[in-house]
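Objective 1b of the project was to move from sequence-level analysis to a structural picture of ligand recognition. The entry below was assembled by the postdoctoral researcher (A.K.) and checked by the PI before modelling. It contains the amino acid sequence of the target and the SMILES of the bound compound, coenzyme A.
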Amino acid sequence: MCSDCAALIRDEQPADIAEVRRVETEAFGQAEEADLVDRLRDQNAHLLSLIAEVDGQVAGHILFTRMWIRSGETRVSAVALAPLAVLPEYQRRGVGTALTNEGLRRLRGMQERIVLVVGHKEYYPRFGFSRESAERLSTPFPTDSFFALELVPGALDGIAGSVEYHSAFGL
Ligand SMILES: CC(C)(COP(=O)(O)OP(=O)(O)OC[C@H]1O[C@@H](n2cnc3c(N)ncnc32)[C@H](O)[C@@H]1OP(=O)(O)O)[C@@H](O)C(=O)NCCC(=O)NCCS
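Corresponding predicted holo structure:
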């Protein structure tokens, strides 16, 4: 439970699927992210899909999927944070923060080491994501919106190369 925003953070259940679609569509003002979430779920790519429930309603959603960094001859395992969405009427009360913090806490427990995100530069640094950690990774995204977080200090040491998302991202 998030003490500031009264959100219960829990795993997505099959009964939440329609509401997750609504949250994604209303938050982004388009269906693209909702379609992506559905494709990833259909292809079993979900590593962690969390719901923020406020007053019994699905108010937010965050998804983490497996991704890779091609570094020299090796393929380093990482996690993609995408998308994160909060219904407009529930924004700016800590719901997105609670979803992100709980997701990162769970990923640490799952022994994950690296999380990558494309997003707002004012938002993700507060969770420890940084541009600097991501600077040796090449991506199809604008560099000022691509961030990395080492869940284990030094997890990105010596790693340089291109990132590989699940094919459902269509990149
Ligand atoms: C981004 C988003 C998930 C944040 O969720 P939230 O529950 O409103 O966030 P929180 O309440 O935990 O944090 C609020 C803080 O986030 C920042 N923030 C919120 N939306 C932001 C945005 N669009 N751009 C930059 N910073 C933003 C603000 O600094 C805000 O702090 P303030 O209230 O002191 O100004 C939500 O605004 C959203 O769903 N937006 C549309 C979809 C989207 O852009 N998703 C993220 C893709 S990277």
